[in-house]
Write a structure and sequence with these properties.
Blueprint lengths: L4 E7 L3 H11 L4 E8 L6 H14 L7 E3 L13 H4 L21 H11 L5 E5 L4 H9 L7 E7 L15 H5 L1 H8 L5 E4 L1 H4 L6 H8 L4 H21 L9 H8 L4 E6 L1 E3 L10 E3 L11 E7 L1 H12 L3
Parallel strand pairs: 1-2, 1-4, 2-3, 4-5, 5-6, 6-10
Antiparallel strand pairs: 7-10, 8-9
Helix pairs in contact: 1-2, 1-10, 1-11, 4-5, 5-7, 9-10
The structure holds alpha-D-ribofuranose (RIB) and calcium ion.
The site of calcium ion has 8 residues, from helix 1.
Amino acid sequence: MSAVRRIIIDTDPGQDDAVAILLALASPELEVIGITAVAGNVPLALTQKNARMICELAGRPDVRVHAGAVRPLVRRLVTAEHVHGRTGLDGPQLPEPTMPLQEMHAVDFIVQTLLAEEPGTVTLCPLGPLTNIAAALNRAPEIAGRIKEIVLMGGGFFEGGNVTPAAEFNIYVDPHAAEIVFSSGVPIVMMPLDVTHKALTTAKRVAAFRALGTKVGIATAEMLEFFERFDEEKYGSDGGPLHDPCVIAYLVRPELFRGRHCNVAVETGSEITMGMTVIDWWGVTDRPKNATVMRDIDSDGFFALLTERLGRL
Ligand code: RIB
Ligand code: CA
């Protein structure tokens, strides 16, 4: 096995974030150095608590969880309780967390870790609005050259948006942060709606999680059965898109995904297209290519990986 990949997960749990965290903690190819919570799907007080609940569900109370930004850099916070429920983790009845929240602010943890670790050895995995990542880059611009890669879930182009006709939620909530990250020069792998909409939690796939018969398997099925209902109603599909685990699956089995290196620009001016990620897929501009944008996934392979790995917890 190649060297263990050391990652920081930045997250706004959210049921799909929760499954991504479970996949990461179940995968020996990865070392989760820490989890940083950000306001997004629900306010920070809940995302930091949910992150700890998921670590304990995975039997990993040792994981360092840090709380970060309570609101975007410029705009007011927009949340998504209509999708994730009031708690952000509606579905299963999970116990209150007993593991501690770390004292250190998430942004300080990101900066301190990147300055302390060997350059090029830490990967950032943002699964929510990019506020913490942008704040860290603003605080210590020198970390840009020390980040191995940023593998993020966010944006969309051919699929349009999911919170406005033009914008995907993570980018829409903090477009100014996204603009900072996409222009940072850090190598980026982007999982937009164009690929996550091909990873649907069909009834058969959810049944496979439940059939694990474990605490984790049953809780995952309960989370997804709650989470998917909004998108099933909206798109008339069997299941909803399982966005965030695409980030972690890419780190474990990159061959599940296909995409291309493109320019991605973020709209921060127009209210109509605020937070839109304009992906120059056909290379019609001379804007610099700043992200590998994924557009295709082997969805059966993706769910097989998820089910096998979650079965280990
Ligand atoms: O648009 C989907 C993204 O927004 C996912 O990361 C989901 O968890 C929410 O944060
Ligand atoms: Ca998320």
